[in-house]
TrEMBL record:
Pfam families: PDH_C, PDH_N. GO terms for biological process: tyrosine biosynthetic process. SUPFAM superfamilies: 6-phosphogluconate dehydrogenase C-terminal domain-like, NAD(P)-binding Rossmann-fold domains. This is Arogenate dehydrogenase. Residues 19-270 form the Prephenate/arogenate dehydrogenase domain. It comes from the Bacteria. Keywords: Oxidoreductase. Gene3D superfamilies: 6-phosphogluconate dehydrogenase C-terminal like domain, NAD(P)-binding Rossmann-like Domain. It comes from Shimia marina. GO terms for molecular function: cyclohexadienyl dehydrogenase activity; NAD+ binding; prephenate dehydrogenase (NAD+) activity; prephenate dehydrogenase (NADP+) activity. The gene is tyrC_2.
Amino acid sequence: MGLKQTFERAHSVEQAQQPSVGLVGFGGFGRLIARELAQGNKLTICDPLYSRAVLPDGQRLTLQGLAEVAQSDIVILAVPVSAMAHVCRVLAPHLRPGTLVVDVGSVKVAPMQDMQRLLPAHVEILGTHPLFGPQSARSGIAGHKIALCPVRGSKWRRVAAVLRRRGLQVLVTSAQDHDRELAVVQGLTHMIGKVLSDLGPMPERLTTASFDLLREAVRMVQDDPPTVLHAIEVANPYAAEVRNAFFERAEELKAQFEAHPEVGQTVPAS
């Protein structure tokens, strides 16, 4: 066997060993996942809102029905948190034993409960939250963080190893701990970003380094769909407590400023 044939055979064996991946959802984050998995993986996509699946570089991907996508070794649910229960109900009858079902939502407690309750016992379940998005990962995912919330089965360990090889920082946690921390990390960031964005154009000329960082944070979240903001602020069971504490403190500061308008004023020279 010649050198060329040897490499071709090795490549075909490697391809055969790659798990097939089914992606449910081709929205903003679904497209980011597809971009990262399109090379070297057997990837099929299901999203009834799209008649074709095309990446920014022009690469066309295979669109199939949910029943066909469910036959993949790994099924990734890139759907809104509010749609998770419905998708799981429809998906459940088509899943093969041993399939790993993964979600990528911003909230973990409720979706993980839906997946455990509605998916068959013969599949494995892994909750994930990539702590980045299409804006922050537009140049690549290496160096970013991803949270893993193992629920059922052991295949998540292989997934974690693959993610580390792709340059991601893997953080293993529980659904409850994830939502508690993200109630602050995302809950406040997205809320403040939404408020500042609604105030209108932000200054661009006379700015400070700290303001430039704030403006960049707003830019990263201002184009998120309403479903993302709803999940972060409403579906997270710990978000309301953090949000209320923030507004209470803001009201206290407002009251201080209004009660003592003279504070900070220059005292005229005698």
